[in-house]
Amino acid sequence: xxxxxxxxxxxxxxxxxxxxxxxxxxxxxxxxxxxxxxxxxxxxxxxxxxxxxxxxxxxxxxxxxxxxxxxxxxxxxxxxxxxxxxxxxxxxxxxxxxxxxxxxxxxx
Length: 108
Description:
By secondary structure, this protein is mostly helical. Helices cover 78% and strands 6% of the residues. It is built from six helices and two strands; from the N terminus they run αβααααβα.
């Protein structure tokens, strides 16, 4: 669990460095974002996905990108030192996190 949290923190920090629309203050802020993201993805996201299941099925799963972006925009409001400039930057950042996380967890 700690390994996954560390990998996610590195991915979030590196992604904020690569993308102009995402800013992060420090690595410790990235750790905070990773912790909050893990908590929201564990407890709140399943409820949201269940409530929006018809829309997710209708869009062939693409609505999950909207949910992920929405979650990142909420985290933007909750964590000082982390900001996402808009919805589309949140979508791009969530895709980056998902792809990089899959690659890193496959390697490690």
